[in-house]
């Protein structure tokens, strides 16, 4: 039952070497992501007939000798032996493998942090060098100062004015009520001026409106000044 379970868990990372007694290998990776996995170990299990009532034979093969030295392998051996002894009487294969995988996983995390720091430093150095090279290159843009900014503002305002004129529709060109009212004010003011001229004419001896009103309809108006002296004629007012 345990053999079938660990086959389902480890899949291709488990290789069966012999059956009854069972002997198999389990590959342990510190990280499931291949590009970030820097540590690997291989455990070889030999299960005696009275397993799990006794500790099985467990051998550790170091697949990362550049990082894991022999002293560390000895520590790993002590770890799995202790875990197996604590699990006597129960199914222990997965527990032993997981305890060792967690240990190399912690070591792998430390390695990843160091690698990330180095990569970040290299990236920063590359970026700084790139900036230094660009700083030595001739300018390909107009530096911003008060004079160039003022010119830009004037040009921008002119572009906006032309764009606004181009976007005007026939409706926009029609006079508003306020504009029509302002244009009519001139006519009204002219009328007032003419009224003032009429008043001035009356004050200087023009027609008296009151006298005109007193004249009855049908009466003739006689202006003696129209006739020269000696040429008076009889006028019939009937």
Structural class based on helices, strands and sheet pairing: alpha+beta
Mean pLDDT: 76
| N- and C-termini, Cα separation | 153 Å
Strand fraction equals 5-15%
By CATH, the superfamily of the domain at 2-113 comes out as Ubiquitin Conjugating Enzyme
Principal-axes geometry comes out as elongated
Number of distinct beta strands: 4
Q: How many individual helices?
A: 7
Question: What letter string, H or E per element, gives the SSE order?
Answer: HEEEEHHHHHH
Protein name: RWD domain-containing protein
InterPro entries: GIR2-like (IPR040213), RWD_dom (IPR006575), UBQ-conjugating_enzyme/RWD (IPR016135)
Pfam families: RWD
Note the main attributes of this structure.
single chain; 238 residues; alpha+beta; Ubiquitin Conjugating Enzyme; four-stranded antiparallel sheet; 7 helices; 4 strands; GIR2-like
Describe the structure.
Helix content is 54%, strand content 11%. The chain contains seven helices and four strands; from the N terminus they run αββββαααααα. With 238 residues, the protein is an alpha+beta fold. Helix 2 runs antiparallel to helix 3 (93-136). It has a domain at 2-113: Ubiquitin Conjugating Enzyme, CATH 3.10.110. Strands 1-2-3-4 form a four-stranded antiparallel beta sheet. The radius of gyration is 57 Å and the shape is elongated. The N and C termini lie far apart (153 Å). Residues 1-107 form the RWD domain. InterPro entries: GIR2-like, RWD_dom, UBQ-conjugating_enzyme/RWD. Residues 196-217 have a biased composition (Acidic residues). This is RWD domain-containing protein.
């Amino acid at each position: 039952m345990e053999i079938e379970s660990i086959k389902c868990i480890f899949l291709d990372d488990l290789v069966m070497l012999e059956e009854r007694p069972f002997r198999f290998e389990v590959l342990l990776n510190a990280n499931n992501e291949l590009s970030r996995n820097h540590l690997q170990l291989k455990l070889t299990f030999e299960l005696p007939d009275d397993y799990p009532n006794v500790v099985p034979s467990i051998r550790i093969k170091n697949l990362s000798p550049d990082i894991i030295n022999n002293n560390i392998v000895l520590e790993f051996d002590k770890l799995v032996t202790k875990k197996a002894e604590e699990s006597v009487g129960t199914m222990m294969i997965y527990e032993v493998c997981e305890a060792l995988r967690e240990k190399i996983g912690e070591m792998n995390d430390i390695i990843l942090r160091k690698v990330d720091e180095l990569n970040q430093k290299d990236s920063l150095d590359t970026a700084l060098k790139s900036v230094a090279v660009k700083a030595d290159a001739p300018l390909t843009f107009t530096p911003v100062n008060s004079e160039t900014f003022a010119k830009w503002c004037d040009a921008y305002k002119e572009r906006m004015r032309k764009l606004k004129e181009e976007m005007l529709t026939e409706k926009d060109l029609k006079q508003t009520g306020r504009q029509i009212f302002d244009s009519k004010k001139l006519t009204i003011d002219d009328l007032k001026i003419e009224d003032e001229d009429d008043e001035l004419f009356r004050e200087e001896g023009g027609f008296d409106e009151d006298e005109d009103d007193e004249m009855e309809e049908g009466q003739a108006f006689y202006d003696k000044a129209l006739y020269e002296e000696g040429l008076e004629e009889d006028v019939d007012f009937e």
